[in-house]
Enoyl-CoA hydratase (Streptomyces albiflavescens), 239 residues
Amino acid sequence: MARDRAITTLTLDSPGNRNALSAVLVGELADALTRCGKDGDVRAIVLTHTGNTFCAGADLRDPPHPDALVGLLRQIVELRKPVLARVTGHVRAGGLGLLGACDIAAASTEATFAFTEVRIGVAPAVISLPLLPRTDPRALARYYLTGERFDAAVAVRTGLLTATGDDVDEVLAPILDGLRRASPQGLAETKELLTAKVLETFDRDAAELTALSARLFSSAQAREGMTAFLERRDPAWVV
């Protein structure tokens, strides 16, 4: 955790698993966000990463409980301070849920993205809570269903990203300046306006999508898909 002129930066730093969402990482990030929410000197939070991967999705060896992931995503949306994603590497599966939950997301042009859930026998269930209200449904259908990789320019067009550029810090500089000029009250109330529809989706669908995630991850096809992924081979259904 680092702070510069009222902006606190939280860094995902688990290079051994490419910053995958383990039970430990989800808990640590939730705790850090709670501290930021209570700190009156924090105007906004930037979520970034070490290494060449922002987040590789769920840690298949130590996955968080779906309820914990729902709680983390909702916490980002509900936090009465803007949360920004700063991405300079790859984002996969559950990591895209973090981007969807953030208020603003910027990435370098070398970043890549993919919803890989279908390729291991599951679905992007829980992460749909922040994503479906904020992204283009036709584009999302393609990338949800195929697991294709796409670039930052496509991510901007679909609404997954706010902006992209060769130097992500140059992209973020005027945004952070604007946040520093905004009043804490103004930011909090404006964010509440912007996130109201997203939170309605959480209220309506969280229980159903959490149950779906748990059911799929315990299925035979998911076991085959996760085993194939860890063994670096194609799962049995590939033709």
